[in-house]
Amino acid sequence: MEFPRSWLELSKRQHQVTEQLANMYTQSSLYKEMRTELDPLLGEQKARRSSALEEITCVTPFWHQLWWIICRSFKNFQGFSWVTVIQAIIEVIMAVIVGTTFHYLQDDCTEVQRRSVVLYLLTGYECFKSVSARELFMINRDLFLHEHTSGYYRVSSYLFGKLLAELVPRRLLQSIIFTVIIFSITGIRKDVNGFFTMIFTAMMLTYSTSSLSLSLGAGKNAEAVPTHLIINYILFMLFTSGLSLYHINFMYDLSWIQYFSIPHYGFSALQHNEFLGQNFCPEHKTAEISRCQGYVICATEAYLANQGIDISSWGFWKNYVALGCIMIIFLSMTYVQLLHHKKKRCF
């Protein structure tokens, strides 16, 4: 259906008249006076709207949010159970390789250094496997931003929920598997207290290193932080700790570096647990002691002293205090970084 030419011309003229009237109004003094009155009101309205968008309110309490996040994380965990199985298999293979290399260490003075090497390898492995923890918050960052800004949960609920449901179970399972196999094959520290202390030390090592990785993976520019930065830190700290196995004092002027070394505290605690109160000279016979002179000595307290390890009770517990403080500091940094993520708005 075609409109008559007269109608089209009339419509065109009306449109032109409307535009002319609008232009005349915008140039009039009445328009300018009205804009002067309305602009401040519009500015206040936009400011209130912006503050309302930035303020995030949650209807549900903290514990409800925490439980909801834990349940959802466990469901995701079950959906990728094959990943956990593969990780467990790798743990078993690595533990068997290390264990068979140092198969059943004898209670002999010549085995002291070999025991230290096993503990050193345990320290290094627990640190290196924790580097992957930085991906915990990187993978679901967009989902976190959307749900947090929508008021589903607080940052604290999200942080503790992810730690309790994903980080703690996986790292704890891996530490137990690796430590139990090493303990069974090599025969280090045969008593029950020593066994559980070794597991607890491995767990503290893992969580301390994981907290470092999390603090570097939770920031807004986490992708710009290379993984090899963490690996280089661990390698350097393991290098300084490993020199003590050969009685090499690492740069006296830089000895303060050990206070910032996660591997140092874990390795010291493991050696303290393994050697304190033991004597590796069989039956304390003079003939047997004679072959233990020189590089290795029978009294393990003296061996620990040569390593620069305090043999007092505080010398043992201060390692756990230091690892706990490191964990709290880095987890606090992770929380602050999650809290200050820029909120995305959809218009």
Automatic annotation (TrEMBL):
It is a multi-pass membrane protein. The keyword ATP-binding applies. InterPro entries: ABC2_TM, ABCG_transporters. Keywords: ATP-binding, Membrane, Nucleotide-binding, Transmembrane, Transmembrane helix, Transport. Signal peptide: none annotated. The chain crosses the membrane at residues 82-105, 172-189, 195-217, 229-248, 320-339. GO terms for molecular function: ATP binding. Pfam families: ABC2_membrane (PF01061). Its main location: membrane. Residues 64-275 form the ABC-2 type transporter transmembrane domain. It comes from the Eukaryota. The keyword Nucleotide-binding applies. It is found in: Membrane. This is ATP-binding cassette sub-family G member 3. It comes from Mesocricetus auratus (Golden hamster). The gene is LOC101843877.
